[in-house]
Specification:
Elements: H1 2-5, H2 7-12, E1 17-21, H3 25-34, E2 40-44, E3 58-59, E4 66-67, E5 70-74, E6 80-85, H4 96-105, H5 131-150, H6 155-180
Parallel strand pairs: 1-2
Antiparallel strand pairs: 3-4, 5-6
Helix pairs in contact: 5-6
Length: 181
Amino acid sequence: MRLAAASDRIHEAGAEVVAISVDDEVRQAGMFERWPTPHVRYVSDPGGETYLQPLGLYDPEERDGIALPGMLVIAPDGSEAYRYQGRDFADRTTDDDVFAALDGLGLDAIDPPAGGPIGEVPEDLRGFFRPSDLGAYFRGNRYGAVAIGGRTDNKELRALAREHRVMADATLEAWRAVRSS
């Protein structure tokens, strides 16, 4: 979501956003219908065998296998210029390190690529996370992190709770930007 909201900044740095999930093309088309992100390329990797498992971004234990949140900046030579791997489905990073890695590559700007999934949109979207739920979901994440951080004297746990709160704040800010555009 946050990188989709910053797609102009990413294209100026010579890059594009690719969202890889275990969802098939039909489910991706349904998500795109609900979450229009026109300059994000969607890639389907059922079972995670092609991309997610080799990248170490696959959790086989969660719901019969899901993608772990991750952000990779791949240099033109194929090496990783930046890597963030989430610990669980709710773990995200802030974008500052992503932009620093992109800027460090010194690439020329690109035109925004056509994004979206390939596939027909399913008629029944009831099983898809609704955009109207995103604000409440991340506000809940934010205040849960604040509460948990306040319950412990352990510095590591407090730092983890703060990191999660910052992530939730950044996601809410991006959501507001996407909705206003």
